[in-house]
Design a protein that fits this description.
Helix content: 25-40%
Number of strands: 5
Order of helices and strands: HEHHHEEEEHHHHH
Distance between the termini: 11 Å
């Protein structure tokens, strides 16, 4: 794996629009993408953690949002688009909120997609940048192992397991994975926000 250092992608990768017809014609992977589709079309480093160029990576695009004070709160494979030229876009900021100020959900209920939302989001607690870091960590785990850290039906019992942070580490599934990646994921999906990586910039290389 090669971690690349470069400038962050420009704002064209940080896309709030869902109705760009020109882009639809250029899509190789569109909305409602599966993790399997993403795995087959992009390397781990360029998809998640590389700063890259204009096409960026998921992590770099989320960093742009966070720099603007915005928390996406629904990062998942279905909200990732990839164009034929390699450009990655993170879409559907419909439940995004500004991280500065009040960030508790209006209904006090969980929003987002259950397998990718953080424990605090599932509880309806205050969310911030670390909520997105958790979701990106779950996606990275899934791309490396082919499964989610907490697979199966999302129930109250599952939430209890998530709160304890009990999952199978990626290296136990695939011993060929670098220990640095295993540790990175561990720091991204810690159940308590205060124990996670402080910033998405800590994920980028």
């Amino acid at each position: 794996m090669n971690y690349r250092d470069s400038k962050k992608p420009d704002d064209r990768a940080f896309d709030k629009s869902r109705d760009n017809q020109d882009e639809e014609q250029d899509l190789i992977i569109g909305r409602n993408a599966s993790m399997e589709a993403l795995r087959s079309n992009r390397e781990i480093d360029t998809l998640f953690v590389a700063r890259g160029d204009r096409s960026g990576s998921i992590g770099a695009i989320i960093a742009i949002a966070h720099d603007k004070g915005i928390v996406h709160r629904d990062v998942k494979p279905q909200n990732i688009m990839m164009l034929k030229n390699g450009t990655i876009k993170v879409t559907d900021f419909g439940i995004a909120r500004f991280s500065r100020g009040e960030t508790r959900t209006m209904t006090e209920k969980a929003i987002g997609s259950v397998h990718y939302i953080s424990p605090e989001q599932a509880r309806g607690d205050i969310t911030d940048d670390k909520t997105d870091i958790y979701s990106v960590g779950v996606m990275l785990y899934e791309m490396l192992t082919g499964t989610k850290p907490y697979p199966g039906t999302f129930t109250l019992e599952t939430l209890k397991v998530i709160k304890k942070g009990k999952y199978i580490h990626p290296r136990k599934i695939d011993k060929k994975l670098p220990s640095e990646l295993d540790q990175l994921i561990h720091r991204m999906i810690r159940p308590k926000r205060k124990h996670r990586i402080k910033s998405i910039d800590g994920v980028l290389r």
